[in-house]
Specification:
Layout: E1 6-10, E2 16-20, H1 25-34, E3 42-46, H2 52-64, E4 67-71, E5 74-78, H3 89-92, H4 102-109, E6 111-115, H5 128-136, E7 140-144, E8 147-151, E9 159-161, H6 167-178, E10 183-187, H7 193-204, E11 208-210, E12 216-220, E13 228-231, H8 236-248, E14 252-256, H9 264-273, E15 278-280, E16 283-287, E17 297-299, H10 311-318, E18 324-328, H11 339-344, E19 348-352, E20 355-359, E21 368-370, H12 374-386, E22 390-394, H13 406-412, E23 416-420
Parallel strand pairs: 2-14, 3-13, 9-10, 17-18, 21-22
Antiparallel strand pairs: 1-22, 1-23, 3-5, 4-5, 6-8, 7-8, 10-12, 11-12, 14-16, 15-16, 18-20, 19-20
Helix pairs in contact: 1-2, 1-7, 4-6, 5-6, 6-7, 8-10, 8-12, 10-12
């Protein structure tokens, strides 16, 4: 994996070519956590992306007792008869998805200790939905010294109605229910493709899951789950980011290995802006050579609405649109931390609460900018690819959490980029900074 924290981009080159979508990080992480439901069994995963978050989850599972082999996109997780149930704060606080081990540990061990997890700084993301649902299933939950302490003498199947279709909470309860006798029904469940991938994994392990992909999911648990093989779905956010890289540079980029339905919300907005995609069963392409696009209005929503994880990237493209665009962020409350960095490059953006108003400009200029989170970092790279002069994007540690072989893929499309040694000053680059 790449570890450099800084990228130099010489912008202004239209990108052209094809890339293949990686496996979805947000699908692989819950399926990895689901392996803890197995007892003396194994789970084999294919199309696993080689990312920092994947390695963090693997280290967490190893701490709990699992043995893991990971090579060339294939991961085998061997789970022992007995698991540890206390999780280490140094791993959990690196990544929000660490909370996904809570339900499986309670189901397997009858107890768990989980420090409140970390991740990207994109606003308040409490795990209250997870905890309330586990309580309804019979777990006793206490918060002590910044950690969740959960215990139970036995879980019971029940009906759970989420106030919000939380992806993580839906996944946690699906996994917990897979090892709980009886039928658990989740109302207002998340509908993301990643939920369906987890359901496929639980079915392969012996649980009965129905309704995944809809707002009502039912899980009938089994006393003893079995070894299984699972393929991770393609990453719709990564694929969409490369499509926007082609668009923002007015080039032509195709992404293979992706179901166009996964990117339907993005493609719909691009068509509204005047950019029409070409699709096949497993490919999406944009030809933006000589093209311009119009401003649009977007509201981020749970799937199948416009994904919040694409908000910074589409904002980058809309900064170069003809006219005005409006984006309303309704999922996270602090996901505009990148706006200040966008402005450093010449973007015209006004923030009004959870809404931004973007006035399109014909050209932006390179600068030294800093990524505040994973998707903001990707968006700054997009701006750098389109900008005049040189851009240095710093704090790439966020980006490596979600994009496999990013540098190689961008170079294959014709991007002029290089990774800088950590600590090297960008002042030597004449056109970087402002």
């Amino acid at each position: 994996m790449l570890t450099s924290d800084r990228m130099l981009i010489r912008g202004g080159r239209p990108l052209s070519g094809r890339v293949r979508a990686q496996g979805a990080k947000n699908a692989a992480l819950p399926v990895m956590a689901a392996s803890l439901l197995l007892k003396g069994r194994s789970l084999k995963l294919s199309r696993v992306p080689d990312l920092q978050d994947i390695h963090t989850m693997a280290d967490l599972l190893r701490h709990l007792g699992a043995e893991i082999e990971f090579k060339d996109g294939t991961m085998t997780i061997d789970v022992p008869e007995d698991l540890k149930w206390e999780t280490p704060s140094d791993l959990v606080r690196k990544m929000r998805a660490s909370s996904l081990v809570l339900g499986p540990l309670v189901a397997r061990c009858g107890r768990a200790v989980l420090p409140l997890p970390g991740g990207c700084a994109i606003g308040s993301r409490p795990i209250d939905f997870h905890l309330k649902a586990l309580t309804r299933m019979g777990a006793e939950i206490d918060l002590e010294q910044g950690s969740v302490h959960a215990r139970t003498d036995g879980l019971s199947a029940t009906r759970i109605n989420f106030d919000f279709p939380s992806v993580g909470a839906t996944e946690n309860i699906m996994m917990t229910a897979a090892l709980t006798e009886g039928e658990t029904t989740i109302e207002n469940a998340a509908r993301e493709p990643e939920i369906e991938n987890l359901a496929d994994a639980l079915r392969a392990m012996g649980a009965s899951v129905e309704g995944d992909g809809t707002s009502t999911v039912s899980v009938k648990g089994a006393r003893d789950l079995v070894s299984a093989k699972v393929t991770i779905i393609p990453d719709r956010i990564e694929a969409s980011t490369y499509l926007l890289a082609g668009m923002i540079t007015r080039g032509r980029v195709a992404v293979d290995g992706i179901d166009p339905a996964y990117a339907a919300a993005l493609l719909s907005k691009l068509e509204e802006a005047g950019i029409t995609a070409a699709t096949s069963d497993d490919s999406v392409s944009l030809d933006c050579r000589g093209a311009g696009w119009n401003g649009v209005t977007i509201k981020t929503l749970p799937y199948p609405g416009f994904p919040t994880d694409m908000q910074p990237q589409i904002m980058a493209a809309l900064c170069l649109a003809d006219g005005t665009s409006i984006i309303h962020e309704s999922v996270f409350d602090s996901r505009y931390m990148h706006v200040g960095e966008f402005r450093r490059m010449g973007c015209k953006i006004d923030i009004q609460g959870n809404t931004v108003v973007i006035t399109g400009v014909p050209q932006i200029s390179g600068a030294e900018v800093h990524a505040s989170d994973l998707r903001a970092g990707a968006a700054l790279i997009l701006l750098g690819l389109a900008a005049e002069g040189e851009t240095v994007v710093c704090a790439l540690k966020h980006v490596w959490r979600g994009y496999e072989r990013l540098t190689d893929k961008l170079r294959s499309l014709g991007a002029d980029i290089e990774l800088l040694p950590d600590g090297e000053s960008a002042d030597k680059f004449d056109d970087a900074g402002d």
